[in-house]
TrEMBL record:
InterPro entries: AceGlu_kinase-like_sf, AGPR_AS, AGPR_dimerisation_dom, AGPR_type-1, Asp/Glu/Uridylate_kinase, NAD(P)-bd_dom_sf, Semialdehyde_DH_NAD-bd, Vertebrate-like_GNAT_dom. The active site is at C518. In the N-terminal section; belongs to the acetylglutamate kinase family. It comes from Entomortierella chlamydospora. SMART domains: Semialdhyde_dh (SM00859). Residues 180-339 form the N-acetyltransferase domain. It is found in: Mitochondrion. GO terms for cellular component: mitochondrial matrix. This is N-acetyltransferase domain-containing protein. PROSITE patterns: ARGC, GNAT_NAGS. The lineage of its organism: Eukaryota, Fungi, Fungi incertae sedis, Mucoromycota, Mortierellomycotina.
Length: 700
């Protein structure tokens, strides 16, 4: 108990409210009084004591002591006590502290970043280095997670890195989760066709372009005499199809499909599926469009490649030169046939105008497989601004990368993510970039050296300050441009609030820009034109896709929890409620919800009016307010979230007026990842750096 009090005192001295709970939490019976004395087996947990401490704003500090019904104090195993507590509280994450900052592979000596128990548990326990305490710990964690929601996870981390696990989306130690079982089937009857159809319609470029329907593709597989194998995960976030013979006579199996959702890519499910199919197929070929956003991932998996006419042929496991030559020849022959078909049907096909290349191991053969070494084009004379992106793993970071990749005057110098450190940046084609894990001191060095013109902070709330302080500590004369996507500086007067539609004049030349929140942007666009006509507080009913909950697993982005569901959260005092009220200078009431779609926001805004108005009157006010705004579209009907998903502009419409003429309902839709985050950040960067406001932003 004395150690418990020491810990509480230390926390209190550091400004953290803490409450000692030496008893009253665990109930127990003697384990074996004669053999072990005052050692107990936990029989119950009283969570009310813990929840009362949390409600009071104090961190509960427990001891591994329990009480019998008669009031006798017994010692209990601390790990067992933590497990029993977790089963009752069902937390999102359980954190175990160890000195090594995670679990390490006993053969390679490398730290294990992620363990997906459903897929890896049995094989993991067979490893010779998994024994004694390590094996016991993994078994205990599996038993614990088996009784918790699938969104729960365990992190093993050192005390020195605990803040990264609690306050960033990437963590630092070993993350252990149940994950999902992977499947591999060789018959259509074994596949869930509804889920298969859903992922192909959403992610397969050929299906989306109308070149082939899902039904036609399934018929092809059914008619394939050589057979196929399909791979994926249980929720069908990833689907891979390997044809045992591609029909060209090369005898090499072909990876015919590999499609994945954004969430699957960011959570490395694609790597797990790849590892599974690689066990069955040591040799493979596959083709990818030259502009594929995930092309870097394919290069990482391939041992050789050849690009021609906008397509890249990849292969692995082909160590015979003659086989590689045959595969490449078949690839070229297929392109010739496409050209003939395009010509006879009135289409177009350009031959020989694209650069082709092959990757090679140390050999003079132009077709010998090897890891691709990227080349960097000569530097342009354009006035290009260099960008450093901190926090690139999340959905917003990925959208920013895509926007900068297509921006004529912005280039990425550094992209920082702890989880992706050392991996090539996918979807960026201007130059080869590798993820790094920049510390505040390193950001300070890069700022001082002039290697970047602007930093974008795409980090969770509450963790940006060390990076801002690092930049400000070395600024002399001209200041560095910082664009912060968190809420940390949205209420700070020394920072410029970056909502160009209402604050455009203050942004050019600004060096501290707080990017507005997604809900906050849409809400202000919906309310602002009617500010002087309001007679009370607007009520905003907001619904966001689950990408708004980020990539860190939680009930609000758990697709199984969201299925057939609409989840309200933060019913009062949401950060965006305060943000909108602050910047409008008028109080609003905001009620956020999360829905089972991935991307987009819809806002239904009820506003009391101070005079009688018609729908036409109100629409005219909005049309006049946004007449020259390229990223705000005013429409007559009700905007739909599915029609705005993936668009860089917001839509405002509806304009339903009550029969009294004293109340109007306006509907706004916005993509939370684009105009609600990444697009707006680029809009602010453009203005701050003296570029055209809409440069690099698709306007259609």
């Amino acid at each position: 108990m004395s150690e418990n009090l020491k810990l509480v005192e230390a926390l209190e001295k550091m400004g953290t409210r803490a409450r000692p709970l030496p008893g009253g939490v665990f109930a127990a019976q003697y384990l074996d009084k004669e053999r072990y004395g005052f050692v107990g087996k936990i029989t119950g947990v009283n969570k009310e004591v813990i929840e009362a401490s949390i409600r009071a704003g104090a961190l509960p500090i427990l001891t591994s002591l329990a009480e019998t019904p008669a009031g006798q104090i017994l010692n209990v195993n601390a790990d067992v006590a933590a497990g029993e507590l977790a089963r009752v509280l069902e937390p999102l994450k359980i954190v175990y502290l160890n000195e090594k900052n995670g679990l390490y592979n006993g053969e390679t000596g490398k730290k294990i970043d992620v363990i997906n128990l459903d897929e890896e548990y049995d094989e993991l326990l067979k490893q010779p280095w998994v024994k004694y305490g390590t094996k016991l710990k993994i078994k205990e964690i599996k038993e614990l997670l088996d009784h918790l929601p699938r969104s729960s996870s365990v992190a093993i981390i050192s005390a020195g890195h605990l803040h990264k696990e609690l306050f960033t989306d990437s963590g630092a130690g070993t993350l252990i989760r149940r994950g999902f079982k992977l499947f591999h089937h060789n018959s259509l009857d074994q596949l869930d066709k509804d889920r298969l159809r859903k992922i192909m319609e959403k992610e397969d470029p050929e299906v989306k372009s109308g070149n082939i329907s899902v039904s036609s593709y399934l018929h092809q597989l059914e008619s394939d005499k050589a057979g196929f194998k399909a791979y994926g995960d249980e929720p069908y976030e990833v689907l891979a199809v390997v044809k045992n013979d591609d029909g060209s006579g090369s005898g090499v199996p072909k990876l015919d499909k590999f499609v994945a959702t954004k969430a699957a890519v960011l959570n490395n499910v694609t790597d797990n599926v790849w590892a599974l199919l690689s066990k069955d197929y040591s040799a493979l070929t596959w083709e990818v469009d030259e502009n594929d956003a995930n092309k870097g991932w394919h290069f990482d998996k391939a041992e050789g490649s050849f690009t021609k006419n906008g397509k890249t042929l990849f292969w692995k496991g082909l160590n015979d030169v003659s086989t590689i030559e045959k595969v490449v020849s078949n690839f070229l022959e297929a392109q010739k046939k496409e050209a003939v078909n395009a010509a006879t049907s009135g289409g177009s096909f350009t031959s020989g105008q694209r650069r082709s290349f092959s990757t090679m191991k140390q050999s003079n053969s132009p077709f010998m497989g090897g890891r691709r070494m990227f080349s960097t084009s000569a530097a342009s004379n354009r006035d290009v601004k260099k960008i450093g992106l901190i926090g690139a793993r999340g959905y917003t970071g990925q959208e920013l990368i895509r926007l900068v990749n297509n921006h004529p005057s912005l280039e990425i110098s550094y992209v920082s993510s702890r989880e992706l450190e050392g991996k090539p940046l996918e979807g960026y084609t201007k130059s080869p970039i590798t993820y790094v894990n920049l510390s505040a001191d390193q950001v300070k060095e890069k700022t001082q050296s002039g290697e970047v013109d602007a930093w974008i902070l795409a980090l969770p709330n509450g963790v940006c300050k060390p990076f801002v302080d690092a930049v400000e500590s070395v600024e002399e004369g001209k200041k560095m441009v910082l664009v912060d996507l968190s809420a940390d500086y949205r209420f700070t007067d020394s920072w410029t609030y970056g909502l160009p539609e209402f604050n455009r004049a203050k942004i050019p030349g600004a060096t501290r820009i707080s990017n507005p929140g997604c809900y906050a942007t849409g809400s202000q666009l919906a309310v602002h034109p009617l500010l002087k006509h309001l007679n009370g507080s607007p009520s905003i009913f907001g619904v966001s896709g689950y990408s708004g909950a980020g990539t860190k697993p939680s009930p609000n982005n758990d697709v199984n929890h969201l299925k057939d569901n609409l989840i309200p959260y933060s019913l009062t005092n949401h950060i965006h409620e305060r943000e909108v009220s602050h910047h409008l200078g008028h109080e609003v009431n905001f009620m956020p919800h999360v829905a089972p779609f991935f991307q987009g926001i819809t806002l239904t805004v009820n506003m009391p009016l101070n005079k009688t108005m018609t729908s036409g009157d109100i629409r005219e006010i909005y049309e006049a307010a946004y007449e020259n705004e390229k990223l705000v579209h005013v429409i007559k009907g009700v905007p739909l979230v599915k029609e705005n998903s993936g668009k860089h502009f917001a839509r405002v419409g509806g304009f339903g007026v009550h029969s009294s003429g004293k109340r109007v309902v306006v509907v706004a839709t916005i993509d939370n990842l684009l105009k609600g985050a990444a697009t707006q950040a680029v809009q602010n960067l453009n203005l701050s750096l003296g570029l055209g406001e809409y440069t690099g932003i698709p306007l259609d």
